[in-house]
Predict the structure.
Amino acid sequence: MPAKSTKKLKVQIGLLAVAVVIIVFGLLFVLTAAEIVPVFPAFYKIGHIIVRYIIVIVTMSVGIMLFSNVAATIEDKKLRNALTIGITAFSTVLTLPLLYVFVALFPAASNLYGPVGEFMVKMVAVDFQAIFPKLGVQYLIYSLGIVMSIVFLAVPLLSGILTVKDKKLVIGKKGISIEAK
Protein backbone atom coordinates (compact mmCIF):
# COMPACT_ATOMS: atom_id res chain seq x y z
CA MET A 1 0.00 0.00 0.00
CA PRO A 2 2.71 2.58 0.77
CA ALA A 3 3.93 2.61 -2.88
CA LYS A 4 0.42 3.39 -4.13
CA SER A 5 0.04 6.07 -1.46
CA THR A 6 3.38 7.64 -2.42
CA LYS A 7 2.45 7.65 -6.10
CA LYS A 8 -0.91 9.26 -5.32
CA LEU A 9 0.81 11.92 -3.21
CA LYS A 10 3.26 12.71 -6.03
CA VAL A 11 0.38 13.07 -8.50
CA GLN A 12 -1.49 15.34 -6.06
CA ILE A 13 1.58 17.53 -5.52
CA GLY A 14 2.16 17.70 -9.27
CA LEU A 15 -1.44 18.65 -10.00
CA LEU A 16 -1.45 21.26 -7.22
CA ALA A 17 1.74 22.73 -8.69
CA VAL A 18 0.12 22.88 -12.15
CA ALA A 19 -2.95 24.54 -10.61
CA VAL A 20 -0.79 27.15 -8.85
CA VAL A 21 1.06 27.91 -12.10
CA ILE A 22 -2.25 28.33 -13.96
CA ILE A 23 -3.57 30.61 -11.19
CA VAL A 24 -0.38 32.72 -11.26
CA PHE A 25 -0.73 33.11 -15.03
CA GLY A 26 -4.38 34.03 -14.50
CA LEU A 27 -3.41 36.74 -12.01
CA LEU A 28 -0.79 38.07 -14.40
CA PHE A 29 -3.44 38.05 -17.15
CA VAL A 30 -5.71 40.09 -14.83
CA LEU A 31 -2.99 42.71 -14.37
CA THR A 32 -2.46 42.85 -18.11
CA ALA A 33 -6.17 42.84 -19.04
CA ALA A 34 -6.89 45.67 -16.61
CA GLU A 35 -4.00 47.62 -18.15
CA ILE A 36 -2.34 47.92 -14.75
CA VAL A 37 0.92 46.20 -15.73
CA PRO A 38 1.59 44.98 -19.29
CA VAL A 39 3.16 41.68 -18.21
CA PHE A 40 2.35 39.98 -21.52
CA PRO A 41 2.74 42.50 -24.38
CA ALA A 42 0.97 40.25 -26.92
CA PHE A 43 -1.96 39.76 -24.54
CA TYR A 44 -1.97 43.49 -23.86
CA LYS A 45 -2.37 44.14 -27.59
CA ILE A 46 -5.61 42.14 -27.95
CA GLY A 47 -8.02 44.76 -29.24
CA HIS A 48 -11.09 44.07 -27.16
CA ILE A 49 -10.78 44.14 -23.38
CA ILE A 50 -13.69 41.70 -23.23
CA VAL A 51 -11.65 39.04 -25.04
CA ARG A 52 -8.85 39.59 -22.51
CA TYR A 53 -11.25 39.15 -19.60
CA ILE A 54 -12.75 36.01 -21.15
CA ILE A 55 -9.23 34.56 -21.26
CA VAL A 56 -8.75 35.60 -17.60
CA ILE A 57 -12.05 33.98 -16.54
CA VAL A 58 -11.28 30.72 -18.35
CA THR A 59 -7.71 30.57 -17.03
CA MET A 60 -8.66 31.31 -13.44
CA SER A 61 -11.61 28.88 -13.56
CA VAL A 62 -9.38 26.05 -14.75
CA GLY A 63 -6.73 26.76 -12.10
CA ILE A 64 -9.21 27.13 -9.25
CA MET A 65 -11.23 24.04 -10.21
CA LEU A 66 -8.09 21.92 -10.58
CA PHE A 67 -6.75 23.10 -7.22
CA SER A 68 -10.11 22.58 -5.51
CA ASN A 69 -10.62 19.09 -6.94
CA VAL A 70 -7.11 17.93 -6.02
CA ALA A 71 -7.38 19.46 -2.53
CA ALA A 72 -10.59 17.49 -1.96
CA THR A 73 -8.73 14.20 -2.59
CA ILE A 74 -6.05 14.75 0.06
CA GLU A 75 -6.36 12.20 2.87
CA ASP A 76 -4.91 14.35 5.68
CA LYS A 77 -8.06 16.06 6.92
CA LYS A 78 -6.34 19.17 8.34
CA LEU A 79 -4.38 19.79 5.15
CA ARG A 80 -7.43 19.05 2.97
CA ASN A 81 -9.58 21.46 4.95
CA ALA A 82 -6.91 24.19 4.97
CA LEU A 83 -6.38 23.97 1.21
CA THR A 84 -10.13 23.81 0.57
CA ILE A 85 -10.90 26.82 2.76
CA GLY A 86 -7.99 28.73 1.21
CA ILE A 87 -9.01 28.14 -2.41
CA THR A 88 -12.67 28.80 -1.59
CA ALA A 89 -11.81 32.14 0.02
CA PHE A 90 -9.49 33.00 -2.89
CA SER A 91 -12.19 32.15 -5.42
CA THR A 92 -14.78 34.21 -3.55
CA VAL A 93 -12.49 37.25 -3.31
CA LEU A 94 -11.81 37.05 -7.06
CA THR A 95 -15.46 36.58 -8.01
CA LEU A 96 -16.97 39.45 -6.02
CA PRO A 97 -15.45 42.14 -8.31
CA LEU A 98 -16.68 40.18 -11.33
CA LEU A 99 -20.21 40.25 -9.94
CA TYR A 100 -19.86 43.96 -9.14
CA VAL A 101 -18.75 44.75 -12.70
CA PHE A 102 -21.69 42.93 -14.27
CA VAL A 103 -24.14 44.72 -11.96
CA ALA A 104 -22.45 48.09 -12.60
CA LEU A 105 -22.62 47.54 -16.37
CA PHE A 106 -26.39 48.09 -16.34
CA PRO A 107 -26.18 51.82 -15.53
CA ALA A 108 -22.92 52.05 -17.49
CA ALA A 109 -24.87 51.12 -20.62
CA SER A 110 -26.48 54.56 -20.22
CA ASN A 111 -23.10 56.21 -19.53
CA LEU A 112 -23.67 56.34 -15.75
CA TYR A 113 -20.48 55.08 -14.13
CA GLY A 114 -20.14 56.44 -10.62
CA PRO A 115 -16.75 56.99 -8.98
CA VAL A 116 -15.67 53.34 -8.86
CA GLY A 117 -17.17 52.60 -12.26
CA GLU A 118 -14.87 55.07 -13.99
CA PHE A 119 -11.95 52.83 -13.09
CA MET A 120 -13.46 49.34 -13.07
CA VAL A 121 -16.32 49.45 -15.54
CA LYS A 122 -15.96 52.18 -18.15
CA MET A 123 -13.51 50.39 -20.48
CA VAL A 124 -15.58 47.20 -20.36
CA ALA A 125 -18.85 49.08 -20.94
CA VAL A 126 -17.43 51.00 -23.90
CA ASP A 127 -16.11 47.77 -25.41
CA PHE A 128 -19.48 46.03 -24.97
CA GLN A 129 -21.21 49.01 -26.59
CA ALA A 130 -18.82 48.82 -29.55
CA ILE A 131 -19.29 45.08 -30.04
CA PHE A 132 -23.02 44.95 -29.22
CA PRO A 133 -24.61 48.31 -30.06
CA LYS A 134 -28.17 47.17 -29.20
CA LEU A 135 -29.01 47.90 -25.58
CA GLY A 136 -31.18 44.79 -25.25
CA VAL A 137 -28.27 42.54 -26.25
CA GLN A 138 -26.03 44.30 -23.73
CA TYR A 139 -28.59 43.78 -20.97
CA LEU A 140 -28.92 40.10 -21.91
CA ILE A 141 -25.15 39.62 -21.71
CA TYR A 142 -24.95 41.52 -18.41
CA SER A 143 -27.76 39.37 -16.98
CA LEU A 144 -25.99 36.19 -18.08
CA GLY A 145 -22.78 37.57 -16.55
CA ILE A 146 -24.55 38.07 -13.23
CA VAL A 147 -25.86 34.49 -13.35
CA MET A 148 -22.35 33.24 -14.20
CA SER A 149 -20.89 35.25 -11.30
CA ILE A 150 -23.45 33.85 -8.87
CA VAL A 151 -22.65 30.31 -10.04
CA PHE A 152 -18.92 31.09 -9.65
CA LEU A 153 -19.67 32.16 -6.07
CA ALA A 154 -22.11 29.39 -5.13
CA VAL A 155 -20.38 26.31 -6.55
CA PRO A 156 -17.00 26.76 -4.82
CA LEU A 157 -18.71 27.73 -1.56
CA LEU A 158 -20.97 24.67 -1.65
CA SER A 159 -18.10 22.42 -2.72
CA GLY A 160 -15.85 23.80 0.01
CA ILE A 161 -18.48 23.39 2.72
CA LEU A 162 -19.23 19.83 1.64
CA THR A 163 -15.52 18.93 1.51
CA VAL A 164 -14.82 20.34 4.97
CA LYS A 165 -17.87 18.58 6.45
CA ASP A 166 -17.01 15.25 4.70
CA LYS A 167 -20.28 15.26 2.78
CA LYS A 168 -21.16 14.80 -0.87
CA LEU A 169 -23.91 16.16 -3.08
CA VAL A 170 -25.91 13.37 -4.72
CA ILE A 171 -28.09 14.09 -7.72
CA GLY A 172 -30.17 11.12 -8.79
CA LYS A 173 -33.61 9.79 -9.57
CA LYS A 174 -34.75 10.60 -6.03
CA GLY A 175 -33.71 14.23 -6.40
CA ILE A 176 -30.87 16.13 -4.79
CA SER A 177 -29.53 15.13 -1.39
CA ILE A 178 -26.47 15.63 0.78
CA GLU A 179 -24.97 12.44 2.18
CA ALA A 180 -21.94 11.39 4.21
CA LYS A 181 -18.94 10.21 2.19
Observations:
- The first strand starts at residue 167 and ends at 172.
- Residues 2-180 form one domain.
